[in-house]
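Re: Re: token formats

Sure, here are both.
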Amino acid sequence: MSSPLYFKQIEIGPMHNYVYLIGSTETRKAAVVDAAWDIDEILRIAAQDEMKITHALVTHTHPDHVGGGFAGMEIAGATELLDKCKAKVVVHKAEAEFIKGLSSSDMIKTDNGDKVDVGGLEIQLMHTPGHTPGSQCFLVDDRVVSGDTLFIDACGRVDFPGGNPEQMYYSLTQKLMALPDDMILFPGHNYAPLKHATMGEQKRTNPYLKFSSLKQFLAAMGYS
């Protein structure tokens, strides 16, 4: 019997962002993860697949993931998405204030371990601060969408405002490293030859998952 999971990875924008569509083939409802850059194209792909977007999941609120002003440019994002479809924006409570132009009724503010129902499909949220205070990953079936917390053979930067190297270390070692080896990692950017990899592979090859102490990790990140 085939799985009802609908899952699509889309590379979009000049910063090689990955946007994800995740939903149920039975109810034809889906969530979009990190809607930005080209909302019309995202909606076109969903419509082509006969999927209705009901939720906009946010891994973190940097402009290249949710839209807004960034390095002198305006990036389409969550606000434009809500102008074109009825959806709830799912954002960690630590970063909800950073999404401008939305009312509280437009948002679902989350915390670690919360679950979101998307057309009968359950998506679990895991708070992974470090890149930003409210960074979160999304777990569904055998997949984890990691935003800018964990990349293929790399991890997110911690030197932006709100970044925290100690929190990143614990997010990597206490949360992501605890995931099963056969879980498949889907990152927030196309920064590697592979579009995805298993967590088991990453535990063996990702240098940022190999530090045995916080002190070693901080030194490697330039915080000795």
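Second one below.
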Amino acid sequence: MSLLPWHPSTWAHLFDYSKQNRVPQALLITGRRGLGKLELAHEFAHSLLCQHPQDTGLQCGHCDRCLLLKAQTHPDFIQVNPEEPGKSITVGQIRLLNNQLTLKPQFDSSRVVIINPADQMNNAAANAFLKCLEEPTERTTLILVTDNLSRLPATIVSRCQKLTLTHPSKPVVIEWLLQHNSSLLPQQLETLYDLTQGSPLQALDYINKDTLALRNECYKTWLDIANQKKHPIIAAENWHKLAESPLLFWITTWTIDLIKYAYQVNPDKLYNRDFKDSLQPLSQKLNLKGLYDLYDLVLVSRQRISTPINKQSLFEEILIKWHELNQSSSK
């Protein structure tokens, strides 16, 4: 393993903990999605468990314990994740962790637990996890990773040493993306940077999954509904299948950009600069209050999308609102 190009300064901070023998009992790594928080957590965990770390603090990769880590059989390295993607971390998982922590580490170094994403602990699990924080066990470091700090109970956050990752500079992101795909055009790089708000790993995921093509297709549907060329109900039938995609985020940015155009904001401040030729004229004919109402609805929908709500009905509500907003503007 090696550090991502934007991690060295943060790593230096973590390495200081080790050098000064002040490794936190509980470390909370937070920041926007796509910055490599989990990768950094693994680097730190492996460093703490390695017998012969490098001068930089990174794992050696060759000792017996590094080999156990590589084989995912190290007895003092525990990972707690949702049992299924999108599901909660359950109280049963945390109780099992509590039982494991009653035993001493098998080796003479630290024991490390990574909980990711920590905000996915349900209420019962979070309450049970407080026991780990309130009754720390011998030579154990708990590392919590989250994109959504606000979803973690304050009682947990207050008991952790917090480390917040910030996004790297634009040139660093673009250079790193080109190293992975040298065929990317300047316009594509700009769009990826804007859409992911400078989160390199999310941008790379967009590239690997050809997500820009899906976004362009969804935006065309959005415009077709505005121009009365497609019925919102029919579009919702297709869009509910994309509930796990960034679609709701894209709709949010399209709405925000329309509002920004209404206030004559500099186009460089838009999320979707590549769509400016259609967004600008569209904003001029739409009612501003109606746009704010749509924006409020989308924000509420983003909170509801992770619940058991009927996804098709959710998109129907948004698209009917969008359809009506454009219909009223054409009268």
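The first helix runs from residue 8 to 19. The chain has a mean pLDDT of 93.
- S.
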